[in-house]
Amino acid sequence: MRRRPSDRAYRRGLADACFPPAARAALLVRIASGEHISDVCADLGITVNRARSYGRHAPAWARALDLALRAGRDADLVHGSAMAYRFGRCRCPDCRAVKAAARH
Ligand SMILES: [Zn+2]
Predict the structure, then answer these.
(1) Do 83 and 55 share a structural domain?
(2) How far is the CA of 81 from the centre of ligand 1 (A)?
(3) Residues with Cβ within 5 Å of ion ligand 1?
(4) Can you tell me the mean pLDDT for 5-19?
(5) Are 66 and 85 found together in one domain?
(6) Which pLDDT band, with edges at 50, 70 and 90, does 104 fall under?
(7) Rounded CA gap, 64 and 87, in Å?
(8) 7 C-alpha vs ligand 1 centroid, how far in Å?
(9) 31-73: per-residue pLDDT in tens?
(10) How far is the CA of 47 from the centre of ligand 1 (A)?
(11) Three-class DSSP labels, 29-91
(12) For the chain, how many structural domains are there in total?
């Protein structure tokens, strides 16, 4: 069953209320400057899961978040490896892809 547009708008509104534009902007800037996504989210009073799931309603946000994660990632780690994900706590798109593949 397809979701009605009004229903989608309502959900989008809820997501905006939980994660306002000012918080989204602050999150991107701080991640891009090298702060860890977990630390920034804790500081802003949201969960990492909420920050990510917002991208389901807003694909542009998901892309911006991935760009910020790449920009701010630790240059000393080998990205796209389980080591960087597990021990480096890296959550850039490359490291997350390895983690996702390892689940299967
Ligand atoms: Zn990484």
Answers:
(1) no
(2) 7
(3) 73, 79, 84, 90, 92, 95
(4) 77
(5) no
(6) low
(7) 25
(8) 36
(9) 999 999 999 999 999 999 999 998 888 899 999 999 999 999 9
(10) 20
(11) HHHHCCCCHHHHHHHHCCCHHHHHHHHHHCHHHHHHHHHHHHHHCCCCCCCCCHHHHHCCCCC
(12) 2
What is the span of the domain harbouring residue 57? 1-72
Residue type, 102: A
- Together in a domain, 85 and 47: no
pLDDT band at 20 (very low <50, low <70, confident <90, very high): confident
78 CA distance to ligand 1 centroid (A)? 7
**CA 5 – CA 58 distance, rounded (Å):** 15
Indicate if 94 and 51 belong to the same structural domain.
Answer: no
pLDDT of residue 66: 97
